[in-house]
Design brief:
Blueprint: E1 8-10, H1 19-23, H2 30-36, E2 48-49, E3 60-69, H3 75-83, E4 89-93, E5 101-103, H4 105-113, E6 118-121, E7 124-125, H5 128-134, E8 138-140, E9 142-143, E10 154-156, E11 160-162, E12 165-167, E13 172-176, E14 179-183, H6 188-210, H7 217-223
Amino acid sequence: MLETPPILTIQRNFNRPDAAKVAKLVGALTGNIADCLGGRGALDPVIKPLADSPEGMRTVVGPAFPCQNAPSDQLGAMAALAHAEAGDVIVAATEGYTGTAVVGDLMLGMARNRGIAGVVTDGAVRDLGGIFKVGLPVFCAAVNPDSPSRTGPGSAGLAVDIGGATVHPGDIVVADSDGVVIVPQGLLDMVIEKLAQVRVAEAEMEAKVEDGLEMPDSWRALFASDDVRYLD
């Protein structure tokens, strides 16, 4: 006789990154983090901060607590809210479904009260006025006032596919006005090491542009090389 599968599967304990190391990414631009990852790491750009949200709602850094939600359902998000730790970022996958919201202002308010750092979803949210009052950073694909069900199936604390990437529990979420970048936990030390170099290089180039730089010498060398064929 086949066993009836549970409507909800939860992994409560997993390896989280060292908080002091995660803190070293606070204030880093997502573009710089992506550069540390070889120019990759961003989720689908449809996932972005809410339009007109204040600056305090447009940045978040923290360990990912992923959850899977069936389309038009929020059971996984409920489980994530109940089991995530302070400082975690709930990453709510919905298979890209935006036909209903996956969270609204009340759930986000409870998440704030539990110390959750923010929410990222490839789905929709609702209750914008209330969300702005809550003040929790939210990155989503859409806004839709329709409400979800709570019937599952869903999961929390397990890896999810979202925005073209697989997010594992304990990966690091770095998000700002440009979008959301995921740092695999195993690459955190490498990213921290490279970040200082990227910031120095960025600052040097910004200074050169401010001083009137029109084109780097490396570009001029490329365009003058045999690797380029001119047709006129």
